[in-house]
Amino acid sequence: MALFDSSRLPMNPGEMHRQNADAEAPPDWALRYADAALRCGLKAPEIEASLISKGLPPSIAQSAVPCCFEKRLHEAKRSQIRADRLKWFGRIASLVLAAPYLVLLGSPTGVEVALFLLISLGCIWFPEILSTFCHILRIGPYMSAPWPVGLVVFAGWFLLLSAIVYAIVFK
Predict the structure, then answer these.
(1) Is 0.70 topped by the overall pTM?
(2) Do 152 and 130 form a contact (C-beta atoms < 8 A)?
(3) Alpha-carbon gap, residue 152 to 155, rounded angstroms
(4) Which of 38, 152, 162, 164 has its CA at a distance of 20 to 30 angstroms from the CA of residue 74?
């Protein structure tokens, strides 16, 4: 009979640190409670006191609110990365669709094509700037705020795709 069982020891110091970190991590119910309380407007000390009153040790209760904030920041960062990828995908797709029009720039209607591409690609590539610009010029009735960015992007895609449909149907 062995006095010391080495099979239950962690393999390396990193695993030991991970086990200690998991032991100090707030349970899921505490994180859900802290997140809901933050959304309701409670302050961190109130949330910590409430978690302690529910039986959570003070050291773990103090780490619940920062864990919620870290989770929110991580989700916001992931959402921003996804939005940036979609923005670049849209920009590249707009260039691919606009490329056939560049052949027409040498034709007599080249100026009209260039202006048309400038407007539609500008709406797709720089919607924030154009929505503010439209607000400054007071384009549109009853505009007291900048145009929604999504509306500007939609208008750019509508112009670009309508030109493709026009070229297919009438040419």
Answers:
(1) no
(2) yes
(3) 5
(4) 152
